[in-house]
């Protein structure tokens, strides 16, 4: 995954086009150039409103950059190429800041949905999905519907659903925002394990405690620019 000269500005909810005239001050993200090597693990931090979710959205192809080019799995993203978008998205695991669970499916079916959609059969994924839900502490909630889950339970379900397909790139937007510290550490262990198994991981978070505890490198957004914070520098 790489950004080459990527800028983003919003205009009344619509991405600005170059033709509409680009004012440097209106840009949320300014000329970002960085690479996430395959198999790497990074946190993405920065104040509220600094553009973390916006940056992730561009990676998961829900937002077109105003300028610049994004590379994903060695392919240059062509924003209007639907076939390419669908193919690339299949290799992503996304944990949305607002969960996006399907309200009419129970916990098990929400977690299994990506596998079901890919054509897998119940007997093929039953054990994997159950084990994963066990890991995120939802073993006793398999039949529960999303509307009765606590915020933290919803978040853990969203995490399970995002990683159930063993994605090549995991993008998590505040994945521990609603859960206690101990569960947060457990979830981090899951991400670290998936990273060991080969996944590239990028986690947007405000949670400096978790960042510190896991000792992974940090990309920090400030005034539209991205700064690399080395592990050895510690946390300011
Ligand atoms: N669709 C949109 N239209 C207009 N402005 C937007 C849109 N989405 C985000 N913004 C603005 O872009 C800026 C960055 O928002 P973004 O959600 O990326 O920040 P964030 O770093 O994820 O914040 P938080 O930590 O609060 O989640 C904010 O000022 C926000 O209001
Ligand atoms: Mg956000």
TrEMBL record:
SUPFAM superfamilies: P-loop containing nucleoside triphosphate hydrolases. GO terms for cellular component: plasma membrane. Keywords: ATP-binding, Cell cycle, Cell division, Nucleotide-binding. The keyword Lipid metabolism does not apply. GO terms for molecular function: ATP binding; ATP hydrolysis activity; transmembrane transporter activity. The keyword Nucleus does not apply. Residues 12-236 form the ABC transporter domain. GO terms for biological process: cell division. InterPro entries: AAA+_ATPase (IPR003593), ABC_transporter-like_ATP-bd (IPR003439), ABC_transporter-like_CS (IPR017871), ABC_transpr_LolD-like (IPR015854), P-loop_NTPase (IPR027417). It holds the Pfam family ABC_tran. PANTHER family: CELL DIVISION ATP-BINDING PROTEIN FTSE, IMPORT ATP-BINDING PROTEIN. This is Cell division transport system ATP-binding protein. It comes from Asticcacaulis taihuensis.
């Amino acid at each position: 995954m790489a950004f080459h000269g990527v800028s983003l500005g919003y205009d009344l909810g619509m991405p600005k086009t170059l033709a509409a005239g680009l004012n440097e001050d209106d840009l949320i993200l300014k000329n970002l150039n960085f690479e996430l090597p395959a198999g790497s693990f990074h946190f993405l931090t920065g104040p509220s409103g600094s553009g973390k979710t916006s940056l992730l959205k561009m990676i998961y192809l829900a937002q077109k950059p105003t300028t610049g080019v994004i590379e994903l799995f060695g392919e240059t993203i062509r924003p209007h190429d639907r076939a390419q978008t669908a193919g690339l998205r299949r290799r992503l695991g996304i944990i949305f800041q607002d969960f996006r669970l399907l309200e009419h499916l129970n916990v098990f079916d929400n977690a299994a949905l990506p596998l079901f959609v890919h054509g897998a059969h119940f007997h093929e994924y039953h054990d994997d999905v159950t084990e994963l839900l066990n890991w995120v502490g939802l073993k006793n909630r398999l039949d529960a519907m999303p509307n009765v889950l606590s915020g933290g339970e919803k978040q853990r379900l969203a995490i399970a659903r995002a990683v159930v397909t063993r994605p090549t790139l995991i993008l998590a937007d505040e994945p521990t925002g609603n859960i206690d510290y101990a569960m947060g550490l457990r979830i981090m262990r899951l991400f670290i394990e998936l990273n060991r198994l080969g996944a590239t991981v990028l986690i947007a978070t405000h949670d400096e405690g978790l960042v510190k505890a896991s000792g992974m490198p940090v990309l920090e957004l400030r005034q539209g620019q991205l700064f690399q914070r080395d592990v050895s520098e510690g946390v300011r």
